[in-house]
Amino acid sequence: MKKINVKKIILFLILIFLIVGIAIVIVNLKKENKLSETPELILKYQNAQVELNDEVYNLDYITKIENGHIITNKELVNTTRIGQKEVEIEVEDLSKQIKKITLYIDVVDTEKPTINFSKELNTLVGKEINLLNNVVVTDNSNETIIPTIEGDYDFKTAGTYNLFYVATDSSNNTTKESFILTVMEDKNNSDKTNTKSNSSSNTINPSTNQSSSKTTQNIQANSSSSQNSDSKTEDNSDNEVHFTTSKGFKGVTKNGVTYIDGYLVVNKTYSLPEDFGSKLTSETTDAFNKMKAAATLDGIKLWIQSGYRSYDLQKKLYNNYVNRDGKKEADTYSARPGHSEHQSGLAFDVNTIDDSFIGTPEAIWLSKNCYKYGFILRYPEGKTNETGYKYEPWHFRYVGKDLATKLYNNGNWITMEDYFGLTSTYSD
Ligand SMILES: [Zn+2]
Q1: Which of 36, 97, 125, 328 ranks highest by number of CB atoms within 10 Å?
Q2: Topology annotation, domain 111-200
Q3: How far apart are CA 335 and CA 330, in angstroms?
Q4: Would 42-108 and 111-200 be classified into the same CATH topology?
Q5: Which of 283, 341, 392, 417 is catalytic?
Q6: CATH number at 203-301+344-428
Q7: Per-residue pLDDT at 327
Q8: What percent of the chain has pLDDT over 90?
Q9: Ligand 1 centroid vs 319 CA: distance in angstroms?
């Protein structure tokens, strides 16, 4: 009996081992099955090449994702600098595993710079001018690009020189623009060069003689109303704000343009609308031509170096100066867009637009005589706190003989701001 029992026990044990073994195998098989049922993450992405300052997002370059989702938030990629950007993106698959990928975005600059410049520059024999004055290069790279000048010229020899401005950005994109430098004979009897300077300066218009018999006040009022009637007619009551200045003058702001006692005023307080103006007014060029003729008789040569400037050009000039010297400094010598008197078509710069003009026979003659032709020295010496600008002996403004004589004040110039009782400060 005992022997049989031992055999049974052994068989029983073997049976248990077998059952446990089979169970383990089944469980393991099931585990493996479960794993292979989890679908695998499918993720496709590409590297990219984009233009400087393009608006692109980090997730723009994931082309396919299945069995998972992106954890990283959508974000703008900084494309303000040339070079390769690493963009890291985190993805989670269905088994909650997180995967990191890195894609590369190449920021390149293939755009050419833009050169803003005057097509014609004039000077007198022996009188060097800075050919880079009022030349502004803009580029999507926002870098400061100083153009070079290509071509031969000689300030000591009269003639017309065909030259080029060449601007190259740091990615070697190059723009080349031609301009003409005229070096004029410094003689009073040279009618040829006089005519030439007139016809080549795009700001001077032939006189139309339509306003010769009117009074100063009427000319001024006419010039303002004719400018307005170009775009709007019979629009008297709309957009008009009337006020009285601190010195009792009546002011009105009409369609964004301010007139004090009938005179258009532009300074740091009073601006012009973006679309205002297109060229110097005929009153301004007529008066300039008379003044120029009188100056020639006195042995003084005058020409307009910078006349009408559009809002857009002023914007480019001003932004360029801000980039170069900072906003605070730029505000002392350059108007913000909309605040330049050059946009009014009533103001211009003569001859040489820098401090080397101070004290020249031309500057002295103008300061003494310009009022006789209806012009004022708009930014006199020592009046920065009134006008908001430093002394500019080259900048003149047409106001008509009546007001010009009052502001001339026997050689002791009064500013428009002082005379009318106006401020000239930016609101910010
Ligand atoms: Zn000026």
Answers
A1: 125
A2: Immunoglobulin-like (2.60.40)
A3: 8
A4: yes
A5: 392
A6: 3.30.1380.10
A7: 94
A8: 45
A9: 16
